[in-house]
Amino acid sequence: MKICILGGGIGGLSAAIFLKEVGYDVIVYERSLTNHYMGAGIVCWPNASFILEELGVLKEVERVSGAIHRMNRYSKEGDQLGSLEIDDLNKLMGFSSYSVLHADLSKVLINKLNALEIPIYYDFKAVDIIKKDQGKVRVIFENGVEIDTEKDDVIVGADGRMNSIARQFVHGSNSPIFQGFINWVGVFESEQHVFDRICISDYWGIGERFGIVPVSSKKAYWAGGCVSRAQDSSQSENYKTELIRRFEYWPDPIERVIKGTDSRRINKIYVHDHDPIETWHKDNVVLLGDSAHAPLPTSGQGACQALEDAWHLANCLKSQSNTVSAFELFTQLRKVKTAAITMGGRQLAASIFNDNPEFCYQRNESSKGINYSDVVLGMAKGWSNGLPL
Q1: b/e sequence 284-313, b meaning 16+ C-beta within 10 Å
Q2: What is the mean pLDDT of residues 187-200?
Q3: What's the pTM value of the predicted model, to 2 decimals?
Q4: 12 in Cβ contact with 273 (< 8 Å)
Q5: Closest C-alpha to 30, from 110, 122, 166
Q6: Of the four listed, 161, 329, 353, 369, which is most buried by Cβ atoms within 10 Å?
Q7: What average pLDDT does this structure show over 115-144?
Q8: pLDDT value of position 38
Q9: Average model confidence (pLDDT) for the chain?
């Protein structure tokens, strides 16, 4: 069996490693000219750390990551709204949580691919998948290359949320849903020590939010978000000015972080997700990661669930006698958990990016009274589902 993976993101790379290690011939096709990172960073929660251990790369990830201890929630005035003890979550789940830059995690995975001699081809943007006879398909790339699959070959569609050709083939539609808010994301690096501990800081305003995730005492990735009724054209040279204007009166160190970020390391994203779907496969094409389920960043689980997909898919293909039964088992194992995470991310986003002042006041007051130990327990139970944790 030959397995062709469309997409060289976190899900595609991790799937390639798992599938190679269980004995398949794997090739990765990435649409970008080089490694390209839309996001700034990722929190590898304990469920993701388990998968990274299974991949054999957790030690390498630890060396480029920060070990997270706590998540602190604040109002835009700096009032404390509550704290999640991440150390408790880690103990419950048996693995630590790490903050890591997207680029650094990808480099670790690509190094593993190279060690396993898995080829990855860049500038291969899939533009169509055409059904042939006997359950086979042809993949057509923008550069003119075409791939004809044999009966037992597999196409893994890990080609993202915004324009997944694999999702179009499987589901009949690949149109993502704009959820009414913008995220500016960036990476901050300083020569001075700025962060005392590796703790997430999450600031809530009225229809606005700013989050800072340290990776070390001198480095962090961050996201500033706000309500947006429409998707306007973006000019990258204006991103920093837009951010400073919007967040200049928010608590320290927000303005310092924005001003200290190289403008070339700031991106602006009109945030989309997808409705959950029942079927993740058609013929010999199967969806994985954001092409199957694309939660909002408020879920905290986008990359984590892509990693889980990769582990489950390899296990299903290894354990089942044919690809159809493997795809069906994979879908059954994954669709309920990922749908719940998608809808949970929407629910939190609807609260954070609400621009009604009275609603936001009551939201913040309610946050102060939450039993965060129960929240941590709920996170541990939900994120452990389907894993031996």
Answers
A1: bbbbbbbbbbbbbbbbbbbbbbbbbbbbbb
A2: 95
A3: 0.96
A4: no
A5: 122
A6: 353
A7: 94
A8: 59
A9: 95
- Amino acid at the residue 304: C
Element (H, E) at 109: helix 102-115
Q: How many CB atoms lie within 10 A of CB 381?
A: 12
Give the HSE-up count for residue 292: Cα atoms under 13 Å, Cβ half-sphere. 37
State residue 389's pLDDT score. Answer: 94
Average pLDDT over residues 124-146: 93
CA 352 to chain centre: 19
Distance separating alpha carbons of residues 239 and 254, to the nearest angstrom: 15
> CA 183, 32, 277, 345: dihedral to nearest 10 degrees?
-20
Distance, CA of 307 to CA of 289 (rounded, Å): 8
Q: Which two tokens stand for residue 20?
A: 């190679």
- Helix (H) / strand (E) element for 360: namely helix 357-368
Predicted confidence (pLDDT) at residue 144 exceeds the cutoff of 70: yes
Among the listed residues 76, 91, 100, the one whose alpha carbon sits nearest the alpha carbon of residue 46: 91
Q: Structure tokens of 221?
A: 């990735």
> Token pair for residue 300?
């905290």
